[in-house]
Amino acid sequence: MEVTDVRVRKISDEGKMKAIVSVTFDNEFVVHDIKIIEGQNGLFIAMPSRKIGEGDFRDIAHPINSETRAKLQEHIFAEYEKVKNKEE
Questions:
Q1: Sheet architecture: strand order including 17-25
Q2: What's residue 46's pLDDT?
Q3: Backbone phi and psi for residue 77, each to the nearest 5 degrees, phi listed first
């Protein structure tokens, strides 16, 4: 499965959430609401999730292994940097 499109839908300089992203796979399947978050150790992605209790969240869709997460994160960060640099 290949990432065929990454769309950065919203960028914010305020707060920890830096952007909201949609990713298309094989021009056939899209995942919306992936968040780019500024953490203590730099940027990371947070997959779309649903609240399941008092402050608890469960991912709706997510990579099964760390290699796939790293590959997805690489595509997302590359597009985020392009969009961010255009706005500056």
A1: 3-11, 17-25, 29-39, 42-46
A2: 94
A3: -65, -35
Mean pLDDT in consecutive groups of 10 residues from the start of the chain, 88 residues: 91 88 96 94 93 86 92 95 84
Which top CATH class is 3-87? Answer: alpha beta
> Rounded to whole angstroms, how far apart are CA atoms 30 and 44?
19
Cα–Cα distances in angstroms (integers) from residue 53 to residues 10, 21, 44, 75, in the given order: 27, 25, 24, 32
- φ and ψ at 73, to 5 degrees? -60, -40
- Token pair of 55 as six digits: 């402050």
Query: What pLDDT shows up at residue 86?
Result: 83
- Residue ranges of domains in the chain: 3-87
